């Protein structure tokens, strides 16, 4: 049985969606307090990253210190002194206290005796969360010296301040999987059941997105549909502005999906764009409205609560904008505009005061005639299913892991998370040359049947002269496709991508020595 079908996961994700982290903290605290096998696994994880740490005798949740910092779980040794803090994360941002105030708390309490701050997060977030934690340790107050011991894999560790204080990061899958193994070996089947219940919740928050791509799916059709969404976002906003219920702001990269726009909808600040993560998790549509959490009261007052998704603290609130399948562009545009108009009226009926007298979206007919016929294709019903979104977010993991492998091997440096309008990716130095590595829907749609690309600025062209790979010009930038083997599992895809990057890095180094 898959763990994400557990009763606990079902109830938590239906009724406690906005409290996922709190629910997981309570469950983890209960398991650690009631199962010696679970405590032993935690102990082994901690000792792998911090030798000499004392045994855990008691676990408490949410103990506030004098500065107001509240770690999720506090572990005490036999002397009753806190020596391990555990912070449970899913997709919420780090708070202002994390991790520095927690490290300070341990440093003051332990006085150079062994101690650890452990973050537990989804596996797909480790590669982005670990650099952020390390950067904060060095640059936010109070600042600490940091020496990284392990920078990859399921357990990341670093020494703090040159003493016996450690910062650790592991995944929910690794932690709970290890606990389940030890509990089963100990014959503690009650603990096994409890751990699997919690794994159901954490697996739902960090699902396996590494679904293999079928050969036909790597053709240009899906990429062209994703490219067409950019035009749909722009045209919807343009019509909303002319109709008077919307005011456009700046263009903003969407991170996971690539493209989005800041807007004022019904007088409320919002964002409209492609949201692949929400598509994979919540509703069969790539198009979403996002609202800041400060707008929650206004959304509730407008009666939009039943349409709204709340991923949890630190995340924006979301409303899906459904796309009708199997219809032409003008009908999709009509549907999107009418949906946004309805939401604007609910937020503020007065926002329609200056709207055009005839705001029927039939006015939009004719726009499709001006659309590049290759820029938009009708969506098939099966392409709006979450499996397609999961394949795209699976590529996020491939990108993260491939850049980490490149850094560990030494042929890639200077990794910086840098989502663009083109898609999800990282700015790096490959073979000493500046480039961007990620999903490029434009290159995929128009030049080569692969979603992964290296993109170089125009002034880097001379450094590409001796490359054997085919170079395409995409949006006035020189780009190289990185093949994704169809039908391959995650590890095989990763090996192929890393091999391609290493080969290109070698050619760049040789030609620019």
**Percent in helix:** 25-40%
Gap from first CA to last CA: 55 Å
What is the number of helical segments per DSSP (H or I, 4+ residues)? 14
The Cα radius of gyration reads 25 Å
Mean residue pLDDT: 82
Report strand order across the widest sheet: 1-2-3-4-7-6-5
Sketch the major β-sheet: 7 strands, mixed
Number of strands: 18
Q: In terms of per-residue confidence, which ranges show pLDDT below 50 for 5 or more consecutive residues?
A: 1-5, 7-18, 356-362, 365-371
Instruction: Look at the helices and sheets and give the structural class.
Output: alpha+beta
State the shape: globular
Query: What is the strand content?
Result: 15-25%
Name the features.
14 helices; globular; 7-stranded mixed sheet; 513 residues; 18 strands; disordered N terminus; alpha+beta
General description of the model:
With 513 residues, the chain is an alpha+beta fold. It folds into three domains: 3-205; 217-381; 386-511. It has 14 helices and 18 strands. The strands form three sheets. The protein has a seven-stranded mixed beta sheet with strand order 1-2-3-4-7-6-5, sandwiched between helices. Strands 13-14-15-16-18-17 form a six-stranded antiparallel beta sheet. The longest helix has 24 residues, at 220-243. It starts with 6 loop residues before the first helix and ends with a helix. The model is unreliable at 1-5, 7-18, 356-362 and 365-371 (pLDDT under 50).
């Amino acid at each position: 049985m898959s763990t994400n079908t557990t009763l606990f996961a079902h109830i938590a994700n239906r009724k406690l969606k906005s409290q996922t982290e709190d629910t997981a903290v309570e469950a983890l605290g209960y398991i650690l307090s009631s199962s010696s096998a679970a405590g032993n696994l935690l102990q082994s994880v901690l000792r792998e990253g911090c030798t000499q740490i004392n045994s855990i005798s008691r676990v408490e949740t949410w103990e506030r210190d004098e500065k107001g910092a509240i770690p999720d779980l506090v572990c005490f040794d036999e002397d009753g002194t806190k020596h391990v803090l555990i912070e449970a994360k899913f997709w919420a941002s780090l708070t202002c206290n994390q991790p520095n105030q927690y490290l300070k708390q341990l440093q003051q309490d332990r006085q150079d005796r062994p101690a650890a701050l452990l973050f537990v997060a989804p596996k797909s977030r480790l590669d982005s969360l670990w650099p952020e934690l390390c950067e904060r340790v060095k640059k936010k107050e109070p600042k600490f010296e940091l020496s990284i011991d392990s920078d990859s894999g399921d357990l990341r560790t670093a020494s703090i301040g040159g003493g016996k204080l450690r910062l650790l990061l592991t995944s929910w899958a690794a932690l709970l999987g290890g606990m389940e193994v030890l509990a089963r070996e100990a014959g503690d089947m009650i603990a096994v059941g409890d751990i699997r219940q919690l794994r159901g919740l954490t697996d739902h928050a960090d699902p396996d997105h590494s679904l293999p791509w079928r050969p036909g799916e790597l053709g240009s059709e899906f990429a062209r549909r994703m490219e067409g969404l950019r035009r749909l976002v722009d045209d919807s906003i343009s019509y909303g502005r002319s109709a008077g219920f919307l005011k456009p702001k700046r263009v903003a990269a969407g991170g996971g999906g690539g493209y989005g726009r800041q807007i004022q909808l019904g007088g409320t600040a919002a964002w409209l764009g492609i949201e692949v993560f929400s598509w994979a998790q919540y509703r069969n549509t790539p198009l979403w409205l996002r609202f800041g959490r400060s707008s929650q009261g206004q959304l509730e007052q407008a009666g939009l609560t039943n349409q709204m998704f709340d991923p949890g603290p630190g995340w924006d609130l979301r409303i899906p904008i459904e796309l009708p399948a199997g219809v032409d562009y003008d009908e999709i545009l009509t549907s999107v505009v009418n949906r946004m108009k309805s939401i604007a009226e609910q937020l503020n009926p007065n926002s329609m005061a200056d709207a055009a007298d005839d705001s029927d979206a039939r006015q939009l007919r004719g726009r499709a005639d001006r659309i590049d016929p290759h820029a938009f294709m009708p969506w098939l019903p099966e392409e709006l299913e979450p499996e397609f979104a999961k394949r795209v977010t699976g590529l996020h993991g491939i990108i993260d892991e491939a850049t980490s492998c490149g850094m560990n091997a030494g042929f890639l440096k200077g990794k910086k998370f840098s989502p663009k309008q083109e898609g999800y990716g990282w700015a790096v130095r490959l073979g000493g040359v500046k480039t961007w590595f990620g999903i490029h829907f434009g290159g995929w749609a128009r030049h080569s049947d692969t979603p992964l690309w290296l993109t170089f600025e125009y002034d880097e062209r001379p450094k590409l002269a001796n490359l054997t790979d085919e170079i395409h010009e995409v949006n006035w930038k020189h780009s190289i496709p990185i093949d994704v083997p169809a039908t391959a599992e995650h590890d095989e895809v990763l090996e192929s991508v890393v091999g391609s990057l290493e080969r290109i890095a070698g050619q760049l180094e040789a030609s620019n020595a």
